[in-house]
């Protein structure tokens, strides 16, 4: 395939495939010290091929989590949210707080507004496509997990394979029209928690614009860049836009394209590439009862399509 990155042999790390088309568990890395460059090159080859890499009990602390993430590129951080008035529970601005714990250490109550914010994570999405600069890699670490068997898996959808397996006529239509999708955080929050966000109109905020079908540069494969954040597809009447988006989104969410990863132990780390997979949080009986303290480092996309069709700016959606 033109443009495909040659796959270096993986000699220094062990790979266990988790699904017929994507996802792998990687072992053999000593995370107690900075990861060597030759090992890191193999991790890059693995994430390029698999889209999702699970590292069991990597055991990173906050500092080493940020340090490891920095090897992948420039990191996003929460400073704009703090400037907008939101307090941060974690010691590093480069760690996004995606757990269920309040500033006082208590577990989100059922009527907690931040819980409603997080509900959007339970819809299949990619990180930060609603910002002018989208995310490339995400590194999510289980700092403290709820008891085993109480839920909270993270699920992934293989959007490269989903694109490849679309009916040929639909693929041709998408490629010839080269659609741009308009993404909005407010839209996905509203879909997930309609009551809380009933007075929000996504049209009152800028959309971030990304091609619907685009090349995943590291692998040379095409990717269907869909997500719950997609509000509409530009240039199409409302009904047609909804219909096409739903068709593509539902196609990608089919069980055959989905991998469900169970978090086994504190210290587990999952790396994924938002430009070739979607992901979502799943609930469970832990909700409202047990802590699920999850911390995410987010790497800005370094590819040539990172900014999509957006003005280069630091503006973020979701303030405060
Ligand atoms: C995220 C996210 C899912 C989860 O960190 O971006 O969507 O299972 N997390 O916590
Ligand atoms: Mn996410």
Fold and architecture overview:
With 320 residues, this protein is α+β, with helices and mostly antiparallel strands. It has one domain: Double-stranded beta-helix (4-Layer Sandwich). It contains eight helices and 15 strands. The protein has a seven-stranded mixed beta sheet with strand order 1-2-3-13-5-15-4, with helices on one face. A hairpin with a 6-residue loop joins strand 1 and strand 2. The N and C termini lie far apart (45 Å). The N terminus is likely disordered. The site of N-oxalylglycine has 10 residues, from strand 5, strand 14 and strand 15. N-oxalylglycine binds next to strand 5, strand 14 and strand 15. Belongs to the TfdA dioxygenase family. Pfam families: TauD (PF02668). Keywords: Dioxygenase, Iron, Metal-binding, Oxidoreductase. GO terms for molecular function: dioxygenase activity; metal ion binding. This is TauD/TfdA-like domain-containing protein.
Q: Give the class from helix and strand content and strand pairing.
A: alpha+beta
The CATH superfamily label reads Clavaminate synthase-like
- Number of DSSP-assigned strands: 15
User: What's the number of helices?
Assistant: 8
State mean pLDDT (0 to 100 scale). 94
Low-confidence stretches: 1-6
> What's the arrangement of strands in the largest beta sheet?
1-2-3-13-5-15-4
Order of helices and strands: EEHEHHEHEEHHEHEEEEHEEEE
Q: What general outline do the C-alpha atoms trace?
A: globular
> Alpha-carbon distance between the termini?
45 Å
Number of domains: 1
Radius of gyration (Å): 19 Å
């Amino acid at each position: 395939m033109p443009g495909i990155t040659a796959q270096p042999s993986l000699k220094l790390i062990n790979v266990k495939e988790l699904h017929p088309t994507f996802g792998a568990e990687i072992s053999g890395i000593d995370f107690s010290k900075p990861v060597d460059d030759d090992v890191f090159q193999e991790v890059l080859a693995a994430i390029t091929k698999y889209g999702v890499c699970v590292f069991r009990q990597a055991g990173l602390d906050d500092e080493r989590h940020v340090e490891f993430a920095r090897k992948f590129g420039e990191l996003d951080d929460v400073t704009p949210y703090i400037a907008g008035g939101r307090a941060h529970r974690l010691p590093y601005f480069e760690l996004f707080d995606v757990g269920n714990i309040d500033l006082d250490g208590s577990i989100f109550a059922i009527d907690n507004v931040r819980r409603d914010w997080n509900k959007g994570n339970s819809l299949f999405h990619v990180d930060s496509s609603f910002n002018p600069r989208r995310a490339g890699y995400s590194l999510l670490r289980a700092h403290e997990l709820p008891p085993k068997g109480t839920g909270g898996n993270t699920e992934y959808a293989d959007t490269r394979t989903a694109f490849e397996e679309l009916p040929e006529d639909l693929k041709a239509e998408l490629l010839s029209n080269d659609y741009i999708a308009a993404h909005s955080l407010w839209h996905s929050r509203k879909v997930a928690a309609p009551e809380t966000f009933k007075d929000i109109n996504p049209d009152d905020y800028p959309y971030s614009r990304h091609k619907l079908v685009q090349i995943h540069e590291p692998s040379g494969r095409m990717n269907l860049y869909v997500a719950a954040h997609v509000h509409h597809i530009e240039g199409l009447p409302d009904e047609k836009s909804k219909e096409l988006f739903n068709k593509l989104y539902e196609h990608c969410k089919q069980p055959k394209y989905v991998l469900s990863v169970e978090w086994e132990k504190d210290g587990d780390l999952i790396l994924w590439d938002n430009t070739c997979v979607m992901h979502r949080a799943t609930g469970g009986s832990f909700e409202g009862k047990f802590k699920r303290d999850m911390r995410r480092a987010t790497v800005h996309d370094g590819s040539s399509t990172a900014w999509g069709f957006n003005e280069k700016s630091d503006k973020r959606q979701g303030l405060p």
